């Protein structure tokens, strides 16, 4: 099992930046993959970015070039650096980790005003 706690959300103007953090209760070296999902009201949860154990990353087309996923293995922490934010990035952002199944955090709200 793994516990995940997100932080770093908030209200920001369009064009601004935020960095989300996800503190994991175990080393990322023991986790197959980690990722950030988001869900806006009325929409399905979607994968925004992911990073695998070997370091390979993946990004949704909507965030490529603006978001960067990274991890600090010494701190058991996953990050999502979000730049050039747009109002359509407004959503609840969830950290997720894949062991034998996926585990989820409680989420952190990101609101981008126009």
Kindly describe this structure.
By secondary structure, the chain is mostly beta strands. Helix content is 0%, strand content 54%. It has no helices and eleven strands. It has strands at 4-7, 10-13, 18-24, 33-39, 46-52, 57-59, 67-72, 77-82, 91-98, 102-104, 108-113. Strands 2, 4, 5, 6, 9, 10 and 11 form a seven-stranded mixed β-sheet that branches. Strands 1-3-8-7 form a four-stranded antiparallel β-sheet, with no helix packed on it. Strand 7 and strand 8 (77-82) form a beta hairpin. It is globular. The N and C termini lie far apart (40 Å). The relative contact order is 0.32. The mean pLDDT is 94.
Helix content: under 10%
Average per-residue pLDDT, rounded, comes to 94
Count of alpha and pi helical runs: 0
Specify the overall morphology: globular
Radius of gyration: 13 Å
Would you count the extended β strands for me? 11
Helix/strand-derived category reads mainly beta
Strand count, sense and closure of the main sheet?
A: 7 strands, mixed
Uncertain ranges: none
Structural key phrases:
single chain; 114 residues; mainly beta; seven-stranded mixed beta sheet; four-stranded antiparallel beta sheet
Provide a compact summary of the structure.
This protein has strands at residues 4-7, 10-13, 18-24, 33-39, 46-52, 57-59, 67-72, 77-82, 91-98, 102-104, 108-113.
Record the SSE blueprint.
Layout: E1 4-7, E2 10-13, E3 18-24, E4 33-39, E5 46-52, E6 57-59, E7 67-72, E8 77-82, E9 91-98, E10 102-104, E11 108-113
Parallel strand pairs: 2-11
Antiparallel strand pairs: 1-3, 3-8, 4-5, 4-9, 5-6, 7-8, 9-10, 9-11
């Amino acid at each position: 099992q793994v516990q995940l706690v997100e932080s770093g959300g908030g209200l920001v103007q369009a064009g601004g930046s935020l960095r989300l953090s996800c503190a994991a209760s175990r080393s990322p070296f023991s986790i197959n993959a980690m990722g950030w999902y988001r869900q806006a009201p009325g929409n399905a949860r979607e994968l925004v970015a992911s990073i695998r154990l070997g370091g390979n990353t993946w990004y949704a087309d909507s965030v490529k070039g603006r978001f960067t996923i990274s991890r600090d293995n010494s701190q058991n922490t996953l990050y999502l650096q979000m730049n050039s934010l747009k109002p359509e990035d407004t959503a609840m952002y969830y950290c997720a980790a894949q062991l034998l199944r996926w585990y989820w955090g409680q989420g952190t709200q990101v609101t981008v005003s126009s």
